[in-house]
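[agent] plan:
  1. take the single chain provided in the ticket
  2. run structure prediction with default settings
  3. attach structure tokens to the ticket
  4. add a short note for the reviewer (M.T.)
[agent] executing step 1
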Amino acid sequence: MGIAAIVLAVGDIVRLGFLTSNMATLPQVPATTLLYNDWYPAMRSERLSGKKLETTMLMGIPMVLGRKDDGTLFAMRDSCPHRGIPLSCGWFDGKEVTCKYHGWAFEPGSGQCTLIPSLTSHDTLDARRIFATAFPCEERDGYAWVYVSEPGMGRARLEAIRPAVPELPKFGAKFRSAHLVADLPCNVDHGIIGLMDPAHGPFVHQAWWWRKRASIHEKEKHFEPIPEGFRMSAHAPSGNSAPYKLLGVYGEPITTTIDFVLPNRRFETIRCGPKWFSSLTTVTPTVANACRIDVYAAWNIFYAIPLVTTIAKFFGKRFVEQDRMTMVQQSEGLRYDPSLMLIDDADRPAKWYFALKQARLDGEPARHPMSGPVSLRWRS
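[agent] step 2 finished; step 3 output follows
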């Protein structure tokens, strides 16, 4: 993105508990656990228009999405409850989705069946008591966000526990924005701990417009616990990243704050007087051994410069492609089931992530691996 660290990098390890040793060697364990009862970005909402149906994989679930005549979005499991044919093979008239096989029709927001054409006056089956699987779906920041509940959860309980849809913080009405996306050939845990990896920059992202390996120096950052996550407290950004140096033209102090929040969200905010940059990066599981990174950024920095969005997207794509290529290469090594390790202090955020994830899986989200503020040091 050219200004902020859209950081996705070399991942290590899969699901494990919180480690306290300076270095731990761990066996590779298949990542079979996913975090349900939360919102995930399914696709860009601009793809959903008219009477088109779009398909995607999310959390290992085939989904079909669309936009109703009233402008609201819907997401359904791409499977008719009658014989299992994908609903995306059928038709959508702006109000109902109709199965291609036998013409069963469904209201897509609730999944309720509205018509079974084969029924006669002698049948007692009430079609409206049949439901295809539908998921809450809302539009935010150019994405169709889908709430994926735990399998078997009742509708009443789902409504009671469902949190607000994530949204990128913005600090003014006038701003520019951009989206980036990349598919990664790794499980979601490998992708997510790359979001918080602070040591790969001078190696994966060597470039004249970002940083050089020779720029490595020791850093100290302060972290604090937040609900279901942790925060890198407001700090002056690293002076060895070229984009940050550009902000010096404003003559204002520069601060960066980075939050990670379960299940998969990294928020970064850069403030420079009245100027700001804000980004939300998510890593979303598509299938068991693949995930997708989405980046949405908004800013008023260099707002008046022509082509600033085009330039930002150009460098942002190159940045994310460096990460994607690294993950492709890493996946080759992981095929042979190597032992992996996490070290202190650079890998401590990854340890916090695994501990937070385990606490939620155990039904104890209040169990936090951080008892208070922590200072970490590393070289990058």
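[agent] step 4 note for reviewer: The first strand starts at residue 23 and ends at 26.
[agent] ticket updated
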